[in-house]
Amino acid sequence: MNSLFFNHVEENELNANVIQVVESFARQNNNQQIYLLTSPLGEKYKYDYEKNAIVILSPKHKIIFLDLAQDADQFNEYYNDFVEDLNSISDKFNYKDHIGRPREWKQEVTVKETISVDFDIDSLLEKHLLSKELRRKGELLISLLIGSINDIEKVGVETPETILDKVKKNIILFDGDQTRFIYKEFPNKTVSIQGLSGTGKTELLLHKLKELYVSDDNSKIFFTCHNIALANTLRERIPSFFNFMRVEKQIEWNSRLWVNRAWGSRSDKDSGLYSYLCHFYDIPFLKWSSLTDYNKIFSQVLDYVNQIDEEDFKYAFDYILIDERQDFPKVFFELCEKVSRKKVYIAGDIFQDIFETAREAELKVDIILNRCYRTDPRTLMFAHAIGMGLFEEHKLNWFDDRYWNTIGYHIERFDNREVHLTREPIRRFEDLDTEKLDSMIIKRSTHVEQVLEILKVIQKDNPSVKADDIAIIILDDNKQIYDYIDSLCYNISEVLKWNVNRAYESKVQEEDAVYITNPNNVKGLEFPFVICITGSIKNTYKYRNILYTMLTRSFIQSYLLVQNHDNLEIQEKGLNTINQRRYIASIEPTDKEKEDIKHTLVKLQENVNMSYKEFLNGIFDELKIKFAVRKKLEKALLETDIEKFDKEQTINFINANKGFYSK
Question: What region holds the UvrD-like helicase C-terminal domain (predicted)?
Fold first, then answer.
């Protein structure tokens, strides 16, 4: 089924044929966004005639009201009530000041039709195509009807001129899969969505949170994630999001709603999900150490909880929402389901979980989001390619055809195992003149002067750009990066007169300040422009995953600045193919190479749920390394490009260097 299609109409004898015809049309037109409704989503409006009518919504087209029972009087009453309620929603979200009253727009962007025996959706849509001048107004009304509320003060009704303004003022419409996650009733207790970076996972969790919070006055909800910076961002966003969505209920922090990281501290029970559960179930709290990780603490809690007699057991929460699924072990989700009375909602990145080898498990999630609405498709393709090593002779990963299709790719095969991977264009970019704009740029220098030059070009090409439209991300992890950041901050302030935000310290976004950070404080954030800086392109899974994630933080352009040019030419060639031909060109691994890749991932998977300290101590014990030498070897290993949990390479390094460090 077309992931852009959404049907919220209960089927009956009158409407079954219409629904079938539209569904068939949607399957054949994968880029046509269509919704079938009988009343506004997320609202409590109901109508006597809605079983006899269907409302068809599709961007660039009028809102089409279909009369199925051919009762003119009842249908007109339904139409007028529907338009009146739509006007109330428009007034509620301050759209009315921009799009006007119904007497102005209902003649322009709505139409009434009576169903005929030979119903033809193609002709109907063609007949009611909107003029370019009215399309934004039509999309704004659709956004109200599906609950995909936009900030009208920011997007406006006038068509923006520059690419930056077009992207910033783009009207966001949930696609069919996104809408299903918010409004569909799922029978299972745990509901999971998996999506690529930029598919709107975090935004959907916020909408789901709103729906849950307002529907039950007595519910207890915990919204959690691994990253502290993301938890802080979520906690700051929720009050403004609730205000924006006109939630009239007051937020009862730490009595009805908790938003915090997964771990927490012993001294504050509300500081994390683990700390709260330890308090709630009277379980000893384990503080973080090199020998204590998620797998250990959540297994401990689950063991405690499972030992409670059924008649004495109490649920800690009604709902738990989890962002960034890939940061947690399986036992964490088992625990969340155990301690939640009603539902657990999980969102994760289907590409970031680099150690996942059981792809079938991911294909069975409830909703898969493969349309990236944030990042230009060319940037996304390059990020995927460099993340998996697709341009290189030795690939880091490769998917079967079914999984390529799942994450939004079409694969074509040619002679000599050459494959082309293409993606469908995304609605957000189809109306933008981006052909002459390079969305992904590689530079062979990391000098501060190079960064300043890029910032000046961004300023020149985008007169309305602000400092907080830009993120600079230092990908490497060593002490030297902080000297580099000091120089960068000084020069940006002196030369460009822009404020800078050292986000690795502040952990928050600041208005009118360039966001400068390491990769640890970027999850869940997005910027029109992103500049990624690295000494060299390393071959470890962890590094390539970080590189993919950071490059896909941009709306418009991503820059990759590399100091060491080894392995860079092949990446530049691959990017050039993407820009010119709109596909990833790669050589498919042989069956033997695929098995080797799988073997490597399986070996890494065996150790991923232990801490690196535990992993190393196990090897040190196995090799009988003296305690006095272990710290030196551990420090040396961290300076190499060896994958952290690659046992074979780690053993080879230790055996080759233990004599030197024993002196």
Answer: 514-560
Within a domain: residue 261? yes
What ranges make up the beta strands (E) of 323-396? 340-349, 367-369
Ramachandran bin of 249, using left for φ above 0, alpha for ψ from -120 to 50, beta for the remaining angles: beta
- On whether both 228 and 137 belong to a single domain, the answer is no
Long-range contacts of 414-422 (CB under 8 A, 24+ apart): 416/587, 417/587, 417/588, 417/590, 418/585, 418/586, 418/587, 418/588, 419/585, 419/586, 419/587, 419/588, 420/583, 420/584, 420/585, 421/381, 421/390, 421/583, 421/584, 421/586, 422/582, 422/583, 422/584
Q: Is residue 396 part of a domain?
A: yes
Give the pLDDT mean for 192-217: 88
Q: Are 527 and 503 within one domain?
A: yes
Q: φ and ψ at 117, to 5 degrees?
A: -65, -45
**427 to 171, 431, 527: CA distances (angstroms):** 10, 8, 19
Query: Into how many domains does the chain fold?
Result: 4
Beta strands 470-474; 513-517: pairing state: parallel
Q: What are the backbone dihedrals phi and psi of residue 393, each rounded to the nearest 5 degrees, phi first?
A: -65, -45
Residue 359: which pLDDT band, with cuts at 50, 70 and 90? very low
Buried b (16+ CB within 10 A) or exposed e, 573-606: ebbebbbeeebbbbebbeeeebeebeebbeebee
Of 298, 407, 396, 328, give the one whose Cα is nearest residue 362.
407
CATH for 316? 3.40.50.300
Task: Give yes or no: residues 334 and 235 share one domain.
Answer: yes
Q: Would you state the torsion angle of the CA atoms of residues 269, 271, 274, 275, taken in this order, to the nearest 10 degrees?
A: -20
3-state SS class at 33:
coil
Highest mean pLDDT among 391-400, 602-611, 625-634: 391-400
Q: What's the token pair of residue 255? A: 């009595």
* pLDDT 10s digits, 555-586: 899 999 999 998 899 999 999 999 999 999 99
- Kindly state the average pLDDT of the residues 455-464: 93
Crossing angle between the packed helical segments 176-183 and 201-215, to the nearest 10 degrees: 30
Helix H or strand E segment including 538: none
To 10 degrees, what angle do helices 294-306 and 273-280 make? 30
Within-domain flag for 165: no
Q: Are residues 308 and 450 in the same domain?
A: no
Question: What pairs with residue 558 in β-bridges?
Answer: 440, 530
Q: Please check whether residues 638 and 540 belong to one and the same domain.
A: no
Domain boundary among 526, 557, 589: 589
Calculate mean pLDDT across residues 325-343.
94
> Around Cβ 304, how many Cβ atoms within 10 Å?
15
DSSP 8-state class, residue 495: I
Domain membership of residue 164 (yes or no) is no
Does 178 or 158 have the greater pLDDT score?
178
Residue 221's domain spans which residues? Answer: 178-369
d(CA 228, CA 238): 16
One domain for residues 9 and 154: yes
For position 567, which CATH number holds?
Answer: 3.40.50
In angstroms, the CA 64 to CA 332 distance is 46
